[in-house]
Design goal:
The complex is a heterodimer of chains A (397) and B (260). Chain A is mainly alpha-helical and 397 residues long. Chain A contains 15 helices and 4 strands. Chain A has a domain at 26-42 and 63-296: Orthogonal Bundle (ABC transporter involved in vitamin B12 uptake, BtuC). In chain B, a hairpin with a 2-residue loop joins strand 1 (4-15) and strand 2. The chains are: A mainly alpha (397), B alpha/beta (260).
Chain lengths: 397, 260
């Protein structure tokens, strides 16, 4: 029996951080200020700036990158519930992203041209296909994903750690493959195969039509969705189910002995995580104005996991930081950096193709020196540093 | 004779060729404090794990509250009212003492995902009340001042107490304590005896102990059952057990009595 010898001062500090979680009003204020500031900047100020500065932002942080990063944030927050809260390693999160995306493809486009269903959509009434309002589709996509979370989870969650990771990895491959090859399932065109479904309808907001280039307004929508996920994460975490997840993460057997139904609690984690994956999927479909099967690759699951780990498992703010930074590097930072280097040195190196080298390096570095992530959950910080202490004792540095 | 709170009939557990528990029948009388003792490897903890649903017995039945609970999933048995503590403390280390206790209230709380997200009045009231109950339980076991500390930061004795508080949060009818005084000093063990009776009387539970410390066992138990190599070799009051020849043989070896 190891008896941890940690000063009580530390525990007191951590307690304060836990209390913060219960106080929702504080973060909402800060979040709103940042959100509005960025929105005002991109909607109004950036056009007024001198060309040099404006083009700097155009190169290093265009509005579309901000929006795409927010989609990653939404999905990473969902994965955080599964991995960070409940401690279940999920390597197939892309499945939910894909299902959410195809919900948008099915219910917000001309794809099912055989029928003509309209509900609150901005599409003209005579246009064939299923055209539901973006908000309805958001809800449907989230619920369909949650249902799939339960369906996928029911058989797989009986497995323990490594096996669970392997099976989720399998599902993460199977579901995008189904869409990729779903052009002709017994004569039924499920997904339009590799051609994908494009375009999807505009988003309707207060009678406005938001097309693919209305980045400012879409930014606001995506931010609200991300905020919703933060809100849901924090609320659930501080409640009955959140405690059960934490207990399962700490000691599964003891949790079940204390009357916590393991399967049901884990399924709930899967469902809530998938819920947000669905929201992210629908949002992403409107962002890129379509769904394309080949985009839902295995690497998305890994990048999402890297975001959660880099930021700090279990801490929504850490996950947001991790998601924003990795998404930025992936979409803009690395290409822009490469462009700068290439034009300065006259070389012709394809920098974006080295992104996995970079991520691999970062992950190894993190595992060596900052295992708990950039902004770790206050609880985890403790245990990770303890591990550091013990290894350094053995290692003798 | 009073009705028994929990009854195990002809329990056998085999792991491959090894018979860990061999046809043991046992019952915990209503409101009683009984002990299960035996040398190392006698099958005590295995038997315990059968009672709490962790192991499926090869044969035999466990009856609780007139219901057959044999091989029910652990959380169902816990919810029905059989709570336990662990020999090697298994608290949720990175949760506060209060949260540890609140986890065990899981089955008594009703708020679902939606009401938690919305923060309905009912949910908030429930949370507040469960928090209050948790604090009361912590006070009851005498560690109320540690409510906000992580379980892993508590002292060893406090961790043991927290385990009892957590088990009591299930509102159990039967409380199983697996070597509760392991690692305690004689002074702590002594106060523990009073503590067990206080738990029994105030929380209205029947208690089964597995215990190594004979002075504790003899003082605390109303009835003792002795296991040796998976078999029940004796059962009786502490006085009877003390003078039972087979028990002494099991503990000290065959020639021990003459040798001493």
């Amino acid at each position: 029996m190891k008896i941890p010898s940690i000063k009580f001062k530390k525990a007191g500090k951590s307690k304060k951080q836990i209390d913060k979680v219960f106080d929702q009003s504080k973060w909402i204020r800060g979040f709103t200020i940042v959100t509005v500031a960025i929105w005002v900047f991109y909607a109004f100020i950036v056009d007024l700036l001198p060309y040099v500065i404006a083009s700097f932002f155009q190169k290093w942080l265009p509005a579309s990158t901000v929006n795409e990063s927010l989609v990653w944030v939404i999905c990473a927050l969902g994965l955080n519930i599964v991995v960070g809260y409940a401690g279940l390693l999920d390597l197939g999160f892309v499945a939910f992203w894909a299902i959410g995306g195809y919900c948008a493809g099915w219910f917000m486009s001309d794809f099912f041209y055989q029928v003509n269903i309209h509900f609150g959509s901005m599409a003209p009434a005579e246009q064939p296909g299923i055209h539901l309002s973006f908000w309805a589709v958001l809800f449907i996509g989230a619920l369909v994903c949650a249902a799939f979370g339960v369906i996928i989870g029911a058989p797989t969650l009986r497995l323990k750690s490594d096996y669970l990771a392997l099976v989720t990895l399998g599902f993460g491959e199977i579901i995008p493959q189904v869409f990729y090859n779903g052009e002709n399932i017994g004569g039924f065109n499920l997904s339009n195969g590799s051609k994908g479904i494009s375009p999807v309808d505009n988003i309707g907001l207060f009678g406005k039509k938001l097309g693919p280039f209305d980045l400012d307004w879409k930014y606001l929508i995506f931010v609200c969705l991300a905020a919703l996920m933060v809100f849901i994460s924090l609320r659930i975490r501080s409640g009955r189910l959140g405690r059960a997840w934490l207990a399962i993460r700490e000691d599964e057997l003891a949790a079940s002995m204390m009357g916590v139904p393991l399967m049901r609690s884990k399924l709930a984690a899967y469902a809530v995580g998938a819920f947000s994956g669905g929201i992210g999927g629908v949002a992403f479909a409107t962002h890129v104005n379509g769904v394309f099967a080949d985009r839902f690759s295995f690497s998305i699951s890994i990048i999402l996991l890297a975001m959660v780990v880099l930021g700090g498992m279990g801490n929504v703010w850490g996950v947001i930081v991790g998601a924003l930074s990795i998404a930025w590097v992936n979409t803009t930072g690395l290409p822009a950096f490469g462009e700068t280097v290439n034009s300065a040195l006259g070389t012709n190196i394809n920098f974006p193709s080295y992104n996995f080298l970079l991520f691999g390096g970062i992950l190894i570095f993190m595992m060596l020196y900052k295992r708990e992530g950039l902004l770790p959950e206050s609880r985890l910080k403790q245990i990770m540093h303890e591990a550091d202490d013990s290894t350094s004792n053995i290692g003798g540095h | 004779m009073t009705k028994s709170a929990l009854q195990a009939d002809n329990i056998s557990v085999k792991f491959g060729g090894l018979v860990a528990v061999d046809d043991v029948s046992f019952d915990i009388p209503n409101g009683g404090v009984v002990s299960l003792i035996g040398p190392n490897g006698a099958g005590k903890t295995t038997f315990f794990n059968v009672l709490t649903g962790l192991y499926k017995p090869t044969s035999g039945t466990v009856t609780f509250d007139d219901k057959n609970i044999t091989a029910k999933p652990p959380h169902k048995i816990a919810q029905a009212g059989v709570a336990r503590t662990f020999q090697n403390i298994r608290l949720f280390g990175l949760m506060t003492a209060e949260e540890n206790v609140m986890v065990a209230m899981h089955s008594h709380l009703k708020s679902g995902i939606i009401s938690t997200i919305l923060g309905t009045k009912k949910q908030r009231t429930e949370e507040r009340e469960s928090k209050k109950t948790a604090r009361e339980l912590l006070d009851f076991v005498g560690i109320g001042n540690t409510a906000d500390q992580f379980a892993r930061n508590l002292s060893y004795g406090d961790q043991r107490r927290l385990e009892v508080a957590r088990a009591l949060a299930l509102k159990p009818k039967v409380l199983l304590l697996d070597e509760p005084t392991a690692g305690m000093n004689p002074q702590e063990s002594k106060t523990f005896v009073d503590f067990v009776y206080r738990v029994r009387d105030e929380k209205d539970v029947s208690i089964l102990l597995i215990e190594h410390d004979m002075s504790v066992v003899m003082k605390v138990s109303e009835r003792i059952t002795v296991l040796d190599r998976g078999q029940k070799i004796a059962e009786g009051t502490p006085a009877e057990i003390k003078s039972n020849k087979r028990v002494i043989e099991a503990y000290l070896g065959k020639s021990a009595e003459s040798g001493k």
